[in-house]
What we know:
The complex is a heterodimer of chains A (234) and B (234). Chain A has helices at 43-50, 81-85, 94-107, 123-135, 153-170, 181-187, 219-232, and strands spanning 3-14, 17-28, 32-37, 57-61, 66-69, 141-145, 173-177, 190-194, 200-204. With 234 residues, chain A is of the alpha/beta class. Chain A folds into 2 domains: 1-64 and 141-234, Rossmann fold (3-Layer(aba) Sandwich), CATH 3.40.50.300; 71-139, no CATH class. In chain A, the strands form 2 sheets. Chain A has a 6-stranded mixed β-sheet with strand order 5-6-7-3-8-9, with helices on both faces. In chain A, strands 2-1-4 form a 3-stranded antiparallel β-sheet, covered by helices on one side. In chain A, strand 8 (190-194) and strand 9 form a beta hairpin. Chain A is globular and about 50 Å long. Chain B has a single domain, classed as MetI-like (MetI-like fold), CATH 1.10.3720. Chain B has helices at 2-11, 23-35, 38-69, 71-86, 89-100, 104-128, 132-140, 145-182, 188-197, 201-229. In chain B, helix 2 (23-35) packs across helix 10.
Amino acid sequence: MADLVVLSGVSVSYGCRDVLANVHLVVRDGEFISIVGKSGVGKTSLLRAIGGLVPFSGNIACPPRKGMVFQNDSVFPWMTVSQNIAFGLEEYDPSAKRRIVDRHLAVAGLWSLRDSFPSELSGGQVQRVAIARAFAPRPSFVLMDEPFASLDMQTRDSMHRWLEEVWSDEKMTIILVTHYIDEAILLSDRVIVLREGGRLDDLKVDLPRPRDAGMVFEPGFLELKRKIVECLGV
Amino acid sequence: MLIAGWEVVSRSGLIDQALFPPPSLVVSAFFELLGGGFLGDILVSLSRVIAGLTIGVMAGSSLGLITGRNPRIDESLSPMMNVMRAFPPVALIPLIITWFGIGEGAKVFSIALAVLFPVWVNVHIGAKGVPVRYIHVAKTLTYSDSRILSRVVIPASAPFIVAGARIGIAVSFIMVYVAEIAGASHGIGYQIAVSHLDYAMDKMIAALLSLGFLAAITDFLFIRFTHRVFPWLI
């Protein structure tokens, strides 16, 4: 797999406060990686730097077209489900746009809700819209900032299965920031543990796919979780 | 019940009917006014309100979007706007008449000026408070600043534009009344002033109620329009 996102000595500061220092990271095409770390260590800042949303020093080499999914409420309340998914498709002609939106509506299980507004949807459905919107324009990669943090456990489990299926079908590169170690292991090819000062631990996930919540008691899963916890120092 | 009570009290002889005419007399006075060309007065007042309201809402919204989204312009312009909006617009009418005369322009300008400030405050707050994640979603999809303004900032500020416009409707009817009693030969305010001078309380109340109903109908129609154009606000 070719290198898609390459970070070299990336630092982020807000005023005189350094939140991230000298991060080096390579994400390969088609990879699903998760970034975990203690609160305030700079996970979201790292994601925003990759997204070009905050100023940074160092170098980030990545394709310009990217999708982004936030924790909650990033779906536009003034647009229907279909209009939200079509938001990144402005350059497509109407028939191509409709075809892409219809496909993503079907994949996300939102066909019957295509003309609904976000206020009429559940939390899980809203996040499906956000993910479908990020995937629809076929960006080179998608950044996800704790997209399932506000969902209950059952909904989160079903969203994990759905996202793994979509990722596998779309062959998209995903960089996910999460607080949940189980979520990181279940979804990712690699888990990156971000430590204070920008130090990274890179842990490969060798569990077979597809994965489900039942795997969290398997020895391989538990061993990896133990290593991540050790890296986190909790 | 209220109207029946008013009729009974007024006809009981407890209060002078000349001061407090019963609703039946007010209704007949209304038809008498209509026979004397009151419909023309209504249309004149309504046209002044629509012109002033439109200009005030457009100018207030534009200024609100500019100061709400541009911190530098906000810093330089908003303090001046806050001082100016503290002036009671009604008190400015004599000055406006002195400067611009008693023509249509002065009346429309008075209404527009009074509408501008509440609309500006609302839209300024709305535009400033557009969630940054909405902007980030558009930026990661390579939207330009002008597209972000039209596709994200303005729709996200729509509830505040609507709130400002509704306050503006109420203000515009107050202002048209004051502008017309200050110097006019037509309009509902003019009829109220003339009826007052004639000591014709029935006609004065009929004209006053007409103004109130017109304001209520305008607000009702605006709400209907809002629900049609912004269905997610329901």
